[in-house]
Amino acid sequence: MLHALDRNVGLILSGLDELGLRDNTIVVFTSDNGATKAGSNLPFQGSQHSVQEGKTRLPTVVHWPRGKVVAGAWDGFCGALDMFPTLMGMAGLTMPETRPLDGRNCWPALRDDLASPLHSCCWAWRNIDTSRTADWRLHRYFDPVELYGMRTDVSETTEIASENAAAVRTLTTGTNT
Known about the structure:
Order of helices and strands: HEHEHHEEEEH
Low-confidence stretches: none
Strand content: 5-15%
Number of strands: 6
Mean pLDDT: 84
Shape: globular
Radius of gyration: 19 Å
Structural class: alpha+beta
């Protein structure tokens, strides 16, 4: 699979070279979810058909050879809903006001290596929903909740809801009171 992937990405880039378009083309390579249960998302918990970090954290590569993309890794929030507004921003275009989208333009943050304009992301799967911020990840199974500190525990190994009632309240109600 890796050989086929490498070969075909190479064919796409070669085709852009042949057409003289590579220096003016944004190439994005990403995934739609984590590995299957038979695969591995280590160090993250979860896989396809879950809402854990292993399902929702996706590697993404953005290639734009004109030197406009910061080299290295950007550790900000940016989801599939944000891809179109971000690409529009990269191209210097604005989203039409008559067609609002849920996604945000993350281009300024990507370009300047700044914090993401997104403050939280939410997912739902069957009987569980999840809220994720830069600091926290909360899983809610109707009544019981699990909370993990994402700055220090990306593997979701230490459940800390009982010690962080304010964070649980904020993530479940959207308020700090």
